[in-house]
C-alpha cells in the first residue's frame, strides 16, 4: 500500500487502523465543488516533449508515451538465462496509452469494483524447512511499523526464512527514490518491486531494471474527465527514474517525511516522464474518490487506493501482481510457491496472484475479504507471527 510517504505516499493503517469500522465503500458524490478549489489542478495537455527513456517489462509491451514527439524509446535490461525460469507468466499489462495506430483502451481492471467478492480461503502449507520459496511483503502498514522502522523480531523471522532458502521480495507502491533508504537500512540486496509494480529495482546494485511510464496526454485527459464529474483535484506527479522527484500542487496533503517540491505552473508538472499521478479531493473520502475516478476514467488509466489520502492513477492494467510476477520469473519461483503480505486495496492483485495471501490486522476490508489469513498488525509483528509458524527447522 502507500502513505503520503510511500509510493509517493504509501503508509497505511497500523494495527487497528481507520479501516476497521464501517463499510469499505461509501456512496460516491458526483456533484462538482461549490466554487473553485484554491490551487486546483489546472490540467492542460502537456507541451511537446522528447521521448522518455524507459525499460519495458521483458514479457510485456512497453507502456509507451505518445506526445508531439512520437512514441517513447524503450530499451531492454539484461535478463538471466531463460532456461532456468519456470515461473508463472506475468499478468498482462496493456500499454499505458493508446497510440494513434495502436489498440483502443480496454476496460479498466480497476481494483475498486473488482475486489469486492471474497474468495474461499486457501489453507497454508504445512510448517517445515521451506513451505514457500518466496515471501513478498508490502512496506507501509505491513513490514514497516508506524514509526517507519522494522522490528528486530520481524528482521529475525525474515532472516530465518531466507536462511532456509526462501527469497524475501519487497513489493511496494513507493517509487524507487522513496524506497531506497528503507532497503539500505534493512541491508536488502536483492530485487524489489516498486511504483505499484511498474519498477523492478536491484537494491544491491542500486540499479533500475525495468520501468513503465504513464502517458501524459492520456493522464491529462483522464484528470479532465474526473474533474468534469466531481470538481477540481489536488495533484502530485511522480517523475520516473532512480532520482525522480514528486511535484505537489499547493494544498496537497502529505506526511512530514516527504520532501516537498511544489509546482504552480502546470507545464512544469507535465514536462518530464511520469510513472504515476496522485489525486486528492477536498470533500470526497478515499474510497469515494477511487470509485469516482474509476467511473470517469477507468478506460484510460488504472486507479489504485494505496493508503490514507493516497489515490493513484497508473498505466492501465498495471498492478503489484505485474511486478511481482516479473520478479518471481527472474527468481525462478511460481505463484503457488509464494506467500504475500499486505494491508490495502492496491495489495489485492498481489495476494490473489500468490499461492497464499495474508492481510494485516486493521487492513482495508476489501483486502481482508480476499486474504487467506489475517495476522497481527504491523506494530505487533504480524509478518513474524506467520513466518515463525511456517518456517520450522527439522
Task: Describe, in short, the structure shown.
By secondary structure, the chain is an alpha/beta fold. It is built from 10 helices and 18 strands.
Architecture overview:
This protein is an alpha/beta fold and 394 residues long. It is 22% helix and 18% strand. The protein contains 10 helices and 18 strands. The strands form 4 sheets. Strands 9-8-7-6-5-16-17-18 form an 8-stranded mixed β-sheet. A hairpin with a 2-residue loop joins β14 and β15. α2 (152-163) runs parallel beside α10 and α4 (216-230) crosses α6 (286-297).
How is this fold's topology laid out?
Elements (H helix, E strand, L loop, with lengths): L52 E2 L11 E2 L2 E2 L1 E2 L36 H4 L19 E4 L14 H12 L3 E5 L8 H6 L5 E4 L4 E4 L4 E5 L4 H15 L3 E6 L6 E3 L12 E2 L3 H4 L4 E7 L5 H12 L3 E7 L2 E6 L4 H12 L6 E5 L5 H6 L2 E4 L5 H6 L2 E2 L7 H9 L4
Helix pairs in contact: 2-10, 4-6
Amino acid at each position: 500500500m502507500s502513505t503520503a510517504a510511500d509510493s509517493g505516499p504509501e503508509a497505511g493503517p497500523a494495527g487497528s487502523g481507520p479501516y476497521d469500522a464501517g463499510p469499505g465503500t461509501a456512496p460516491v458524490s458526483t456533484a462538482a465543488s461549490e466554487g473553485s478549489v484554491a490551487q486546483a489542478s489546472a490540467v492542460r495537455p502537456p507541451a511537446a516533449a522528447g521521448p522518455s527513456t524507459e525499460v519495458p517489462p521483458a514479457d510485456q509491451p512497453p507502456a509507451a508515451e505518445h506526445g508531439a514527439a512520437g512514441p517513447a524509446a524503450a530499451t531492454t535490461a539484461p535478463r538471466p538465462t531463460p532456461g532456468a525460469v519456470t515461473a508463472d507468466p506475468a499478468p498482462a499489462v496493456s500499454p499505458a496509452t493508446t497510440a494513434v495506430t495502436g489498440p483502443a483502451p480496454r476496460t479498466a481492471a480497476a481494483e475498486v469494483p473488482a475486489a469486492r467478492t471474497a474468495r474461499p480461503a486457501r489453507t497454508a502449507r504445512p510448517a517445515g524447512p521451506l513451505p514457500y520459496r518466496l515471501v513478498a511483503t508490502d512496506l507501509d502498514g505491513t513490514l514497516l511499523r508506524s514509526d517507519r522502522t522494522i522490528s528486530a523480531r520481524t528482521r529475525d523471522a525474515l532472516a530465518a526464512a531466507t536462511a532456509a532458502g526462501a527469497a524475501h521480495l519487497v513489493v511496494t507502491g513507493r517509487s524507487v527514490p522513496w524506497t531506497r533508504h528503507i532497503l539500505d537500512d534493512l541491508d536488502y540486496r536483492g530485487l524489489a518491486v516498486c511504483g505499484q509494480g511498474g519498477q523492478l529495482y536491484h537494491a544491491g546494485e542500486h540499479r533500475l531494471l525495468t520501468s513503465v511510464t504513464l502517458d501524459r496526454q492520456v493522464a491529462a485527459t483522464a484528470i479532465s474527465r474526473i474533474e468534469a464529474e466531481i470538481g477540481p483535484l489536488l495533484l502530485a506527479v511522480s517523475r520516473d527514474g532512480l532520482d525522480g522527484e514528486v511535484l505537489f500542487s499547493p494544498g496537497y496533503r502529505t506526511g512530514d517525511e516527504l520532501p516537498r517540491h511544489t509546482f504552480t505552473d502546470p507545464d512544469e508538472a507535465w514536462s518530464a516522464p511520469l510513472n504515476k499521478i496522485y489525486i486528492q479531493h477536498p470533500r470526497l473520502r478515499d474510497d469515494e474518490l477511487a470509485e469516482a475516478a474509476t467511473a470517469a476514467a477507468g478506460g484510460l488509466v488504472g486507479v489504485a487506493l494505496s493508503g490514507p489520502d493516497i489515490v493513484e492513477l497508473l498505466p492501465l492494467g498495471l498492478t503489484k501482481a505485474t511486478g511481482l510476477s516479473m520478479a518471481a520469473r527472474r527468481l525462478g519461483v511460481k505463484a503457488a510457491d509464494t506467500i504475500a503480505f499486505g494491508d490495502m486495496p492496491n495489495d489485492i492483485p498481489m495476494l490473489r496472484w500468490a499461492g497464499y495471501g495474508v492481510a494485516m490486522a486493521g487492513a482495508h476490508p476489501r483486502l481482508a475479504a480476499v486474504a487467506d489469513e489475517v495476522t497481527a498488525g504491523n506494530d505487533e509483528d504480524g509478518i513474524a507471527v506467520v513466518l515463525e509458524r511456517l518456517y520450522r527447522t527439522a
